[in-house]
Amino acid sequence: MRVLVVEDEKKLGSFLRNGLAQENLVVDLVHDGGTALTQILTQAYDAVVLDIMLPGRDGLSVLREMRRQRVNTPVLLLSARGNVNERIEGLNLGADDYLPKPFSINEVIARVRALLRRASGEHAAIMQVADLSLNVVNREAMRGGAKIELTNREFALLEYLMAHAGRVITKTALCEHV
User: Fold this and answer.
1) Cis peptide before 55 (omega within 30 of 0)
2) Structural domain that includes position 170
3) Best label site of 9, 117, 120, 146, fewest CB within 10 Å?
4) Are residues 28 and 69 both part of a single domain?
5) Cα(34)–Cα(62) distance, integer angstroms
6) How many helices and strands, by DSSP H and E, does the chain display?
7) CA Rg, the chain, in Å?
8) Are residues 79 and 157 in the same domain?
9) CA–CA distance, 122 with 152 (Å, rounded to integer)
10) pTM beyond 0.70, yes or no
11) Chain center to CA of 130
12) Sheet harboring 47-51: ordered strands across?
């Protein structure tokens, strides 16, 4: 799963990227709204963690343009201001969740995981190809009823391949997502 983090505070951005990466997510980090919008419109992301206060183009403007361009990637908004009207505006523009700063990295991870689950649908929590099943919530792989022990990278690779079963996958696409 690939996530874009958009945070202008470099230390906080790195903290978010590292925390999400430890959960076996592929994480891209950008620091301004213009770059974020370009990435969102040209790359495929499974979720976006978007700060509202950004240099250049603010997060609400990025979100507004995403939805105008019919990009339905789930978005978790972050803001230091905590203004109720700002939260309402963000949710009305199409944000899927909102988290005021300061926050716990564990809460960010839980909220991103929830966004990813909702976006893929509950039925996708268990992926099935022939006699191979993959439970992405519990992170378990089974083949013919027997549990398979996988490293984090192996799990991410298998998840990506199963999500694209029956399709040709380029080496580049595989490397970008795993």
Assistant:
1) no
2) 122-177
3) 146
4) yes
5) 8
6) 7, 9
7) 17
8) no
9) 22
10) no
11) 27
12) 26-30, 2-6, 47-51, 75-79, 97-100
